[in-house]
Amino acid sequence: MANNRKIRYIINTVLGAVLLAGAVTAGVFLLRGGEDTPPTEHSTGDSQSPQDGIAYEVVADNIEGDLQTKFEGPDDVPSMASFSGTLLAAENGWYYYEQGVGVQYRDAATGESVVVCARPECTHDNEYCAANNSRYIGRPAVYYDGYLYGISGDGEKTDHEPEKNEEIVWFSGSGDVLLMRYAPDGTALDKLVSLSDALPDAIDHHVSFVSAEIIGHKGALWISVGFERTCMMAQDRDSVDRQKGYALFHYDLSAEKLSTVFYMPLAKDADPFAPAELRGMGDYVYFRKINCEWEDPLNGNRVYRVNIRTGAIEKVIGNDVFTTYAASGSRILYLKEKVTADTNSARMQLMLFDLQTGESRLFLGEEDYVTALQCTEEYVLVTMRGAWESIRIYDYDGRLLQTLPALDMTAFVPDGTNRTDIKVNGDTLYGIVYGVVGGRSVYTMSLAAALEGSGQWQLVLEDSSELLY
Predict the structure, then answer these.
(1) Is the dihedral angle over the CA atoms 426, 106, 466, 458 positive or is it negative?
(2) Residue of 213, 219, 221 whose CA lies nearest to 246
(3) 5 φ, ψ to 5°?
(4) DSSP state of 156
(5) Which of 6, 131, 187, 356 could crosslink 117 through cysteines, CB 3.0-4.6 Å?
(6) Do the Cβ atoms of 149 and 223 come closer than 8 Å?
(7) Which residues contact residue 20 at a Cβ distance below 8 angstroms, ignoring those fewer than 6 apart?
(8) What is the chain's pLDDT, residue by residue, as a tens digit (469 residues)?
(9) For the whole model, what pTM was predicted?
(10) How many Å is the Cα radius of gyration of the chain?
(11) Residues in CB range of 442: below 8 A, 6 or more apart
(12) From its phi and psi, is residue 161 left (phi > 0), alpha (psi between -120 and 50) or beta?
């Protein structure tokens, strides 16, 4: 990489040997489905019927050529954004971010945590720190092929006081929005590329990034970023103008090339949400949209995907996808709101969508209230709401295999009104308890032990601070 394209802090290695030993492979919180995804030989024109194979509708194609890379490595490493604080699994431990401290690594064997900065006597609050840099403000969002990657704002290009003229008062933004690379041993922090410069129209330093999600898939990073620019009229301080937009990027790691897959320009009185829950499977990257901003071409509660071989964006599930989804091979599970006359009894129903036929069906009973889900090739894992939230494992025929031991729901709120989530990484299950107003506890359990009925949750991380996003 050319010297003028990155800023590198080379730091004397103190913790390098300790950290690098635990940072061998990335955590995958979704099944790698690339090899098992059925072939989809088709054109990218009109929608196909279910009889043709996989039903879809092309909604956008802004890429010249394709998005394939020459890289051969991990098939997919989904983002940890759903962890509200970014917990990234490595072979022998976890990377995580703690507000006020920065990036840390926790060793699974010892339970000890170290700050991911190899600079001797660093106070972890300056522009030379790799763990908590004062200029490049952000955090890693994915560990992929030996490095941590994240989105940061350049503090050098940020106005720290509102900018005023005769008519408008501009609020401070994030400065230049950058893709950053963190060395896993804390020895370096690299600025790879400006996302702001890659957009079709100018994004100035008044713009802030309000959401960011990254996954690694087939030698590339897929990056979803939400933007916002805020100002108010000088003569009417109660009138605040917010402009919102988003972009989906593809960064080829070997070619060091950034492509804008889709861009929703900043618009006044618009409230679009950026693509969320990015999932890589084979020749596709899936994502969910959760808004009904009709000026947004990717609107509604729907599941879309990007065809890596063509660069086209395809709509897969046309409506009614609420809260979350999970994907494996030729199947997508998603939550659909059950419409009832009594709004107090509204609940989410678990649906199974077959990519080969284009058909959806109810996976569990109509009265089952599912709040979170994950899946593998063989199993479906759900969080079920009842008197307490329980985590259950089913096969694809809908047979209940196991109900797991209950998580501690009273950790942050004594009455137990917290919420839970479930993730899977290879043979490891992750159970997460989120406090209503803040805090999280993360537990692990062997999937094999869970299926045998002998599994017990082990606490690996507890953070009582306010949730950051």
Answers:
(1) positive
(2) 213
(3) -105, 0
(4) G
(5) 131
(6) no
(7) 184, 185
(8) 443 333 333 333 333 333 434 443 333 322 223 333 333 333 233 343 333 345 567 877 777 778 888 766 666 665 544 444 457 877 788 898 888 889 999 998 898 999 999 999 999 999 999 999 999 988 898 888 889 999 998 877 665 455 555 566 656 567 788 999 999 999 999 999 999 888 877 666 677 888 889 998 889 999 999 888 877 665 665 667 778 889 999 999 999 999 999 998 888 777 788 998 898 888 889 998 876 666 787 877 888 999 998 899 988 876 677 778 888 888 899 988 876 666 555 678 899 998 888 888 999 988 888 888 899 889 999 988 765 678 999 999 999 999 999 887 666 655 555 678 888 877 888 888 877 666 778 889 999 999 999 999 998 888 755 433 3
(9) 0.81
(10) 22
(11) 83, 87, 430, 431, 432, 459, 460, 461, 462
(12) beta
Three-state DSSP at 140 gives: strand
Q: Which amino acid is at 334?
A: Y
